[in-house]
Amino acid sequence: MILDFGSQYTQLIARRVREFEVYSEILPWNTHIDRIKESRPKGIILSGGPRSATSPDAPTVDISLLDGAIPVLGICYGMQLIAHKLGGWVEKGRLGEYGRTKISFDPGNISCINSGLPDEIDVWMSHWDEVRGLPEGAERFASSESGSCAGFTMFDGRLQGLQFHPEVESTEYGREMLSRYIFEVCGCESNWKLGDWLGRALEGVSKTIGESDTVICGLSGGVDSTVASVLVSRVAGERLDCVFVDHGFMRRNEMSQVLDMYSALNLRVHHVDASERFLSALKGVTKPERKRKIIGKLFVQIFEEEAVRLGGAQWLLQGTIYPDVIESGLVGGDVIKSHHNVGGLPKKMKMKLLEPLRELFKDEVRRIGPLLDIPDHFLKRHPFPGPGLAVRCLGTLEKKRLDILRSADDIFISEIREAGLYDSIWQAFCVLLPAKSVGVAGDVRTYGETVALRAVESLDAMTAESVRLPWELIERVTKRICGEVPHVGRVVMDVTGKPPATIEWE
Ligand code: XMP
């Protein structure tokens, strides 16, 4: 169990644990102590966080969690919190340590976490406060270059603190240290297998919806909602109706391609053309969060209307995945974006929500696909956000601008396919900017639209890096977009990573 104190790396801790095929879940720091103990975690990791453990309103844990009964590993803020709660001395350091830093393991004091590792390693630090005095019974086993405590252990290793971030790639031996904590201290076993998960998920859905409830699913054409609906169809069969709401923000020919694929998957899909409704609801709206909220709300409204038309359903199935839940601020951190299938939901909904993929990361969802006989070419489709082109057409949403974006996007993607690069890229797309620029074509001054190209590499969409596309490809795409798409006068390339940017622009 990971208790989140607001660190940007919290999800990464969960991913790392799952890489060892050990199930992990993130809960907010203020989860009630009874709930924590009732779920009988094999071990607890206290994440980092932006606050100071000594400030009176700092996020905290119940002290009974730190009696050594359940193994606890505190990382950064988590370590300072343990020290502070157990009578140690935590204070703002003189300098703070940020980025790659050397630590040395103190000879003679070896925690199982570092046994067999070199005496000195590079780690990732990001802290201002430091532990100056240890709680009684604690032993320091690591020190940073500045001499401050980088790791301590107590209760025979059942309580450990690390000042650095073992979950971050730049920490040498980070995986080894986490693995020792997880397997040697907590005694976990590698049993989080996706095949087993699927069995449990099918059982869970079956229990949840019983033998007579009906389910309606909003399909988006993306991997998440497809995997979710095929999974539920295995249990619900004819009791599942899928609704494909065409919000008018689809890419070129997407509707017909996706409907063909669904018929091959034997899903009963009702196609609703709501493009006019969406466009009129979004008239004049330019703020990203407002766009997302309006789209989310209208989606749910249309689903509900459809459910009534189809004779009523008790459950609304959604392909919500873990990063959606985290980024919508439902776990502990800041709201980054309201993902339309999480943040846009009204408080009072007539249908109950069924979200079987809620605990999976994207790559895990992709790996579940083949187990449900979903064809590879479908699973390899680049992710596409629920609100579609509405969050890629910056500024006002008008049919004309959306058509420009569709044409440009079509050229970009078909050239990427032609170059044989589609499958090796996580996601590529065009964005239409709300900025016009001056150009010259055939000796005539033009004042045209600007298209941005974006192609990113990612593992789970939590972080991303820009893809270094071949220059010839970028040139060809630029030439084609400016030549073939009316009103476009300029093409630019977005090479920003996530962070600091997000993948989508809105
Ligand atoms: P960001 O832009 O947050 O996107 O870096 C991360 C990944 O999520 C996709 N995305 C969405 N998917 N509903 C979705 O189903 C949404 O509202 C949404 N917004 C972003 C995005 O395309 C990227 O793959």
Descriptive notes:
With 506 residues, this protein is an alpha/beta fold. The chain has 3 domains: 2-185, Rossmann fold, CATH 3.40.50.880; 194-379, 3-Layer(aba) Sandwich (Rossmann fold), CATH 3.40.50; 392-494, 2-Layer Sandwich (GMP Synthetase, Chain A, domain 3). It is 31% helix and 24% strand. The protein is built from 14 helices and 18 strands. It has helices at residues 10-19, 33-38, 77-85, 174-185, 194-209, 223-236, 254-264, 275-281, 288-309, 322-327, 362-368, 376-379, 399-418, 471-484, and strands spanning 2-4, 26-28, 44-46, 72-75, 89-105, 120-133, 139-144, 149-154, 159-162, 215-219, 240-246, 269-273, 315-317, 352-354, 427-441, 444-458, 464-466, 488-494. The chain is globular, with a radius of gyration of 25 Å. Residues 342-346 have low confidence and may be disordered. Residues 327, 337, 339-341, 383, 385-387, 427, 461, 498, 502-504 line the site of xanthosine-5'-monophosphate (XMP). Residues 327, 337, 339-341, 383, 385-387, 427, 461, 498, 502-504 line the site of xanthosine-5'-monophosphate.
**Overall helicity:** 25-40%
CATH topology of the largest domain: Rossmann fold
Radius of gyration: 25 Å
Per CATH, the superfamily of the largest domain is: HUPs
- Give the overall form: globular
> Overall pLDDT, averaged?
91
Q: Helix count, per DSSP? A: 14
Largest β-sheet summary: 9 strands, mixed
Strand content: 15-25%
